[in-house]
Every structure is written in C-alpha cells, then in structure tokens.
C-alpha cells in the first residue's frame, strides 16, 4: 500500500501521500491558492488542522497531491470520518486519484468535489469497489468582496457565548436534519458546541430580536485571504423577516473589517431562497460542487 510519504507512479502521473499538513501545503499550496474560492474548504481545513492538531490526533487527516509530468494538477484531503474532498482537477486525474485510494484499501463514506471531477471519481470508484454512489447534495460556492447592506430588520447581532449552548446545539441539529440529512450525525455534539463557544475553528453569531435568538451564522475555516461563512440557520417560524440576511451581512462585513479580502459560503442549489438572498448582499457565484454518498451495492 502507498503509506504516508510514499509516491505511486501511474505513467507520467504521480499520486503522493503526505504525512503532515505543512508538507501538503508546501507541495500544493500555490496550486490551491491560485483558485482560492474553489478550494476554500480544503484551505480552511488545513488552517484548522495546523492550529489545532490535538483535535485530529485520534483520526489523522489524509493528504494527497497529484503531479502530471512534474506539474501539480490536483489535491485532496480527508478528515475521518468525513468525506473525501477534491480540488479542481481534470477528469483523468479524478479517476487516477480514485484508483490510488482503491488500491490502498481506503474506505470512504462519501466524496465532495467539483461537479465533473466528483462524478468521474465516483464512477471510477463504483467500477473498482462495487459500491453505490448517489448524489446527495448539489451545491454552489459563492465569494463576497464587498457587502451590499440589506433592508434592515429589527434586532441586532452578537457573538454567541456560553449561555447559548442549548440554542447552538438544538439549532445545529435542526440545520443538519434539514440541510444535510444524508450525513452521519455529529459524534460529540457537546464537544463541538464547546469549541464554538471557545472560538476554536469557528465563531458563532446570533441575531436577536427582543432578546430572543432569531438566527444563527458561523465564520471559520480561514484561507490565506478569506474565511468561510456557515452554518446559517433560522427556525422556520422566524423566516421571511430578514434576520438571516442581516446577520450574514453583518458577520461578513466583520470579516472584511478584520482584514480579510473575501468571504466564502456554500449554498444548496435546491434552495432558491438562500441563493437569492446571498446574492442580494453581495455574494457572487463561483462554481458548483456535488456531494456523493457511498454505500453498499
């Protein structure tokens, strides 16, 4: 098997495994940063891994890069137990990456990547492993560089604190059930909420109206020039009042004010409302990505 630090050659193409996030970024950083919006999830994961390695000690992340005739053409990362995340890549490199992982006996719960690359990867995976791979979520990556203020809504925003643990936990579960029902539940919800309260990896914000929490948004996963916004959640009975628009606009502006050039977010293409409101406050579409579930045949 191709252990960490080893190289698998497939003609002029080589698939490299890396031991450490620093080695991975030294190899692929320039490639990833050349399309920072498209790769914001991979770059953000790398930031969190580098800053908080203890969070990943029990299940070490897996890093892969692909070179074609000496040129970096693809990168991929997995933080078990989550999905394999693919960079932008040509179709043939997606297939070769699937071959390398299959040859090494990797077990994947799913894949997230650019539309064409993800499809070619899972098609090859089905051929090699004999498992099913079903598209579970079609998403779009957006990028913002300047906020367009929305129509004001009653209330104000603040950073979530320790007194908000119950709200954060309940709303995250509701968000996950609505937005990503196909994903496995969080293994330790209390630990995740504790990290949020301590601002480890992600800071959570609340919009309040009359001292009542009305909407939730997070920011984290920093890239060289930006950060990712999400999750974003408003309880169904409080929607349509502009809470989420105002909160996301405020949180995004705060990131820009802190010196970041961009904010990124992912939207569900099946939710036209969210896609519309994000564009109204300045988010511009960049590219589409698909998420596949992998399971028994």
Provide the succession of SSEs.
Answer: EEHHEEEHEHEEHHEEEHEHE
Q: Distance between termini?
A: 25 Å
The helix count comes to 8
**Unreliable stretches:** 1-5
Q: Could you tell me the number of beta strands?
A: 13
Shape: globular
Explain what the structure shows:
There is one protein chain. The protein is of the alpha+beta class and 297 residues long. It is built from 8 helices and 13 strands. Strands 1-2-3-4-5-6-13-7-12-11-10-9-8 form a 13-stranded mixed beta sheet, with helices on both faces. Residues 1-5 have low confidence and may be disordered.
Gist?
The chain is an alpha+beta fold. Helices cover 34% and strands 32% of the residues. The chain is built from eight helices and 13 strands.
List the helices and strands and how they pair.
Layout: E1 7-10, E2 13-18, H1 21-33, H2 40-51, E3 62-68, E4 71-78, E5 84-86, H3 91-103, E6 110-114, H4 115-129, E7 132-144, E8 156-159, H5 165-179, H6 189-197, E9 202-209, E10 212-220, E11 226-233, H7 243-257, E12 262-268, H8 272-280, E13 284-295
Helix pairs in contact: 1-2, 3-4
List keywords for this structure.
297 residues; alpha+beta; 8 helices
